[in-house]
């Protein structure tokens, strides 16, 4: 009767995505029929682990969960949901109401506490209708919160891993200072985002934040870009032009790929950093500049200095505060979070009804090594959203290098080993894993074997043994 009464109301004007979690299959079926008839999308789970998997791979607006279930409880799921998908409305239902349960539900952040009785369906219908009607206001409030975070420069840096929490803490610590910062890390790890966050959290936030890629300009052009020039200083100089140091006066100049700067330009940059003055090309006069320098590189300065490609004195001028960004493969626990972030962004831009990602696709994303880091993951998700014709990102729309990736990392991704029915060649898998770690360590340290051994936390003698064993 309740389901029939619900159906008579007609489809909702604002359909939402609902996850129903209950070990009683009859309750799940009743709620699924009820809300599907109202035009909502409904997913079912019968325990907390199954619900967790769905929350990690899909985007929900509402979670409806029973309190008492075998194993973990609905309150446990509530706490988990607030971590994974804090934007979700959470409705707890129970057939055995107690004061203790109600207090625990409210303290954990439940939006509604509903008793399983003859009015259960009507109460849930009213709650879902209220949520769907107010969702646009909630999204607007969420937009304002995101704008507020954007003003602090931290909104676009996604991560909850211990390594990223350390980066967030470092940003907050160094931002108020005036010291120069050197950000190192592989390409695609987000060096400019960190630089911008430091600027936006500093006292210079009201002043310009100007960026330049030092590797994108030949020496003569880089000099004119940084220091400016006077009319007639060289062929084509038809007017006076201000350099980036002067343009960034009072603010921050982010110098990306500083390791690609020529030795001649390094000398000129060192002089500016030492004296705080710049002289435009073709001018006899210097002008004072007050600029905070944040530099970045994906190169190994230890090797660059040893081989005479970078001045040691300039390095120490730039690296007053060094920040090393982790590669994405070093913080795999952030991959689902980043994936959902990019999925939400691109599905809105492309206006496609994609609300999740299949477990198989997510497993491959988590196991892949991401040599291009976060930038590669972002491009991968843009491609996947563009190609996907279903309601969730599936394995076939991922690039072949990711969809077909295999090995120990892929086999162990997730919470359990994924051993195929035909079994695995254990010795070969272990050998492949050793070889990949050796190669990754060498890539990370630009081929310096002593440092590669340190990265792998083994002795140099052991490193030589494994390298010889695997012909690396």
Folded structure, characterized:
The protein has 4 domains: 2-148, 3-Layer(aba) Sandwich (Rossmann fold), CATH 3.40.50.2300; 162-324, Rossmann fold (3-Layer(aba) Sandwich); 330-419, Helicase, Ruva Protein, domain 3 (Orthogonal Bundle), CATH 1.10.8.60; 425-472, Homeodomain-like (Arc Repressor Mutant, subunit A), CATH 1.10.10.60. With 472 residues, it is of the alpha/beta class. The termini are far apart. Helix 14 (335-350) packs across helix 16, helix 19 packs across helix 20 and helix 20 packs across helix 21 (460-469). The longest helix has 33 residues, at 120-152. The chain is built from 21 helices and 16 strands. Mean pLDDT is 85; it is low at 1-8 and 408-416.
Q: Any idea what the CATH architecture of the largest domain is?
A: 3-Layer(aba) Sandwich
CATH class identity of the largest domain? Alpha Beta
User: Which fold name fills CATH's third level, the topology of the largest domain?
Assistant: Rossmann fold
Strand order, largest beta sheet: 2-1-3-4-5
Note the main sheet: 5 strands, parallel
List descriptors.
Helicase, Ruva Protein, domain 3; 5-stranded parallel beta sheet; Rossmann fold; 472 residues; alpha/beta
Summarize the structure.
By secondary structure, the chain is an alpha/beta fold. Helix content is 49%, strand content 13%.
Task: Produce the secondary structure layout.
Layout: H1 2-7, E1 17-21, H2 25-37, E2 41-45, H3 48-57, E3 62-66, H4 74-84, E4 89-94, H5 99-107, E5 112-115, H6 120-152, H7 162-174, E6 181-184, H8 191-200, E7 209-213, H9 219-227, E8 228-229, E9 241-242, H10 244-247, E10 252-256, H11 263-275, E11 277-278, E12 287-288, E13 292-297, H12 301-306, H13 312-318, E14 321-324, H14 335-350, E15 356-357, H15 359-367, H16 373-387, E16 392-393, H17 400-403, H18 408-412, H19 426-444, H20 449-455, H21 460-469
Parallel strand pairs: 1-2, 1-3, 3-4, 4-5, 6-13, 6-14, 7-10, 10-13, 15-16
Antiparallel strand pairs: 8-9, 11-12
């Amino acid at each position: 009767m309740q389901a029939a009464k619900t159906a008579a109301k007609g489809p909702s004007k604002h359909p939402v995505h609902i996850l129903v979690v209950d070990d009683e299959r009859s309750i799940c079926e009743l709620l699924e029929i009820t809300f599907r008839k109202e035009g909502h999308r409904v997913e079912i789970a019968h325990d907390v682990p199954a619900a967790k998997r769905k929350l990690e791979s899909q985007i929900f607006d509402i979670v409806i969960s029973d309190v008492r279930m075998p194993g973990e409880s609905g309150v446990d799921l509530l706490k988990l949901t607030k971590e994974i998908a804090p934007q979700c409305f959470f409705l707890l239902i129970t057939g055995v109401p107690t004061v203790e349960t109600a207090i625990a539900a409210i303290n954990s952040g439940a939006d509604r506490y509903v008793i399983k009785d003859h009015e259960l369906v009507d109460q849930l219908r009213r709650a879902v209708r209220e949520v769907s009607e107010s969702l646009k206001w909630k999204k607007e409030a969420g937009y304002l919160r995101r704008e507020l975070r954007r003003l602090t420069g931290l909104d676009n840096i996604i991560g909850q891993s211990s390594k990223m929490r350390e980066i967030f803490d470092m940003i907050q610590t160094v931002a108020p200072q005036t010291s120069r910062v050197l950000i190192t890390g592989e390409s695609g790890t987000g060096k400019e985002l960190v630089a911008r966050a430091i600027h936006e959290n500093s006292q210079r936030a009201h002043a310009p934040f100007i960026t330049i890629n030092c590797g994108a300009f030949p020496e003569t052009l880089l000099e004119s870009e940084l220091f400016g020039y006077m009319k007639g200083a060289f062929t084509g100089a038809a007017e006076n032009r201000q350099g980036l140091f002067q343009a960034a006066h009072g603010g921050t100049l982010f110098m990306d790929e500083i390791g690609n700067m020529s030795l001649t330009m390094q000398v000129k940059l060192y002089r500016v950093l030492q004296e705080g003055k710049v002289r435009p090309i073709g001018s006899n006069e210097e002008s004072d500049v007050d600029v905070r320098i944040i530099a970045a590189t994906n190169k190994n300065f230890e090797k660059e200095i040893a081989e005479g490609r970078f001045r040691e004195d300039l390095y120490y001028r730039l690296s007053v505060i060094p920040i090393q960004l982790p590669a994405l493969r070093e913080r795999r626990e952030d991959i689902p979070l980043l994936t959902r972030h990019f999925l939400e962004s691109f599905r809105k831009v492309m206006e496609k009804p994609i609300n999740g990602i299949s477990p198989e696709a997510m497993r491959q994303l988590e196991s892949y090594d991401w040599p291009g880091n976060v930038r590669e993951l972002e491009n991968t998700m843009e491609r996947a959203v563009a190609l996907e014709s279903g309601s969730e990102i599936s394995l076939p729309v991922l690039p072949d290098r990711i969809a077909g990736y295999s090995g120990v990392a892929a086999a162990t991704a997730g919470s359990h080993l994924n051993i195929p029915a035909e079994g695995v060649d254990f010795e070969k898998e272990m050998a492949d894993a050793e070889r990949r770690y050796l190669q990754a360590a060498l890539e990370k340290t630009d081929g310096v074997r002593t440092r590669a051994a340190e990265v792998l936390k083994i002795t140099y003698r052991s490193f030589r043994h494994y390298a010889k064993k695997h012909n690396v």
